[in-house]
């Protein structure tokens, strides 16, 4: 059985939902690893260009990816980025929030790549 939990994710629910099938879990991890880096880049670009509608959309899109992977911390950051990008009351917080998400995402990716089946 693969290691289902770390400080960055909890794959227990997903593993149960795929019938404790290692290959299915591996496919979900691969999809996550292949799609979320582009989403992270889209969020960074949107914030760099102060395009808050695109930032809101990118954060919203990533929330479901992080939720599937049991990364509650990332889901929470994306929710907050989405909310701030909508009302713009604390937009000065967005760069730091992005870099926190990015740094932890990098560590999460490294852990996911270490999972053995």
Structure description:
There is one protein chain. The chain is mostly helical. The chain has one domain: HPT domain (Four Helix Bundle (Hemerythrin (Met), subunit A), Up-down Bundle), CATH 1.20.120.160. Helix content is about 75%, strand content about 0%. It is built from 5 helices and no strands. The chain is elongated.
What percentage of the residues does DSSP assign to strands (E)?
under 5%
Distance between the termini: 6 Å
Tally of contiguous helical segments: 5
| Structural class by sheet pairing and helices | mainly alpha
Number of strands: 0
Instruction: Name the CATH superfamily classification.
Output: HPT domain
The proportion of residues forming helix, as a percent range, comes to over 70%
- Average of per-residue pLDDT values: 97
Spell the H/E element sequence.
Answer: HHHHH
CATH topology: Four Helix Bundle (Hemerythrin (Met), subunit A)
Query: Any guess at the CATH architecture?
Result: Up-down Bundle
Segments where pLDDT lies below 50 for 5+ residues?
A: none
Largest sheet: none
């Amino acid at each position: 059985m693969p290691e289902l939990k770390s400080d960055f994710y909890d794959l227990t629910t997903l593993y149960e939902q795929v019938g404790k099938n290692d290959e299915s879990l591996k496919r979900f991890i691969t999809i996550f690893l292949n799609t979320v880096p582009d989403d992270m880049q889209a969020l960074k670009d949107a914030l760099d260009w102060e395009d808050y509608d695109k930032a809101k959309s990118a954060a919203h899109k990533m929330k479901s990816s992080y939720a599937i992977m049991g990364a509650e911390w990332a889901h929470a950051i994306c929710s907050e980025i989405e909310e701030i990008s909508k009302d713009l009351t604390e937009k000065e917080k967005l760069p730091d929030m992005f870099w926190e998400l990015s740094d932890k995402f990098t560590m999460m990716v490294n852990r996911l790549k270490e999972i053995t089946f």
